Backbone:
């Protein structure tokens, strides 16, 4: 009887040791996550912080040398033939995506280009049509260079004028000569909700010809605010200038010319 009790105790002891060893091996095969920062739960999505970059500006008394390029005359052609390469290509009343929409050309449509904007950076061309409109040249196959077209904007090509709203008035123009920023503000001209072309239309269109890296570039900007700030650098042979239009679905009121401050 005593021998039997001893054998039972040995059996219980061996079973306990085996269970403990099994539990230990299970814990070792499932380590705690180490790929998350401390304090972040192991479930859900973790987005690491963006790296921070340090920018060291150039000393203010050491301006970079800038060369003022001169425009090279190009041969002008009266028109150019082109074919549309996009499925649907918007044609707008003005030379840019913020101007009012007229209609769209389908792929392979054959069109005739008759003019361009007075800016070497702007890739929009005027299309001959019952109502001439503007397209982006990136979506055209052109028989020639669109920069050889005559400059028609601003000039002979006009925006449709609305009879329903007055033009705005430029209230102030301020230049920060340290940052080359020009801030323009103008008089508000409220537009009725029913006179928006769509929900994305902006009621003020600001056309800016400004200097950047020695080149006069064209920027048509749109906003619902009555002020805007742009960067206008010194170093261009031509003077910067601009104007403000009031935009609504029937056309444009204005323009109000911006008395541009000297650099």
Residues:
């Amino acid at each position: 009887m005593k021998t039997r009790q001893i054998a039972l105790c040995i059996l219980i002891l061996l079973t306990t040791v085996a269970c403990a060893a099994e539990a230990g091996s299970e814990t070792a095969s499932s380590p705690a996550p180490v790929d998350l920062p401390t304090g972040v739960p192991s479930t859900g999505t973790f987005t690491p912080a963006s790296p921070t970059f340090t920018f060291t500006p150039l000393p203010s008394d050491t301006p970079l040398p800038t060369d003022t390029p001169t425009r090279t005359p190009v041969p002008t052609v009266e028109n150019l033939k082109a074919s549309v390469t996009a499925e649907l290509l918007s044609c707008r009343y003005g030379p840019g995506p913020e101007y009012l929409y007229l209609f769209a050309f389908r792929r392979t449509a054959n069109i005739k280009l008759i003019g361009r904007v007075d800016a070497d950076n702007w890739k929009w061309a005027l299309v001959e049509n019952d109502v001439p409109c503007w397209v982006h040249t990136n979506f055209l196959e052109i028989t020639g260079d669109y920069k050889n077209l005559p400059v028609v904007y601003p000039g002979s090509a006009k925006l449709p004028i609305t009879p329903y709203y007055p033009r705005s008035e430029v209230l102030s123009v301020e230049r920060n000569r340290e940052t080359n920023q020009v801030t323009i503000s103008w008089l508000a001209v409220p537009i009725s909700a029913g006179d928006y072309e769509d929900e994305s239309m902006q009621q003020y269109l600001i056309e800016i010809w400004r200097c950047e890296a020695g080149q006069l570039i064209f920027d048509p900007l749109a906003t619902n605010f009555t002020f805007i700030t742009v960067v206008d650098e010194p170093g261009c042979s031509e003077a910067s200038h601009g104007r403000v239009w009031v935009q609504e679905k029937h056309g444009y009121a204005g323009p109000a010319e911006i008395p541009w401050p000297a650099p």
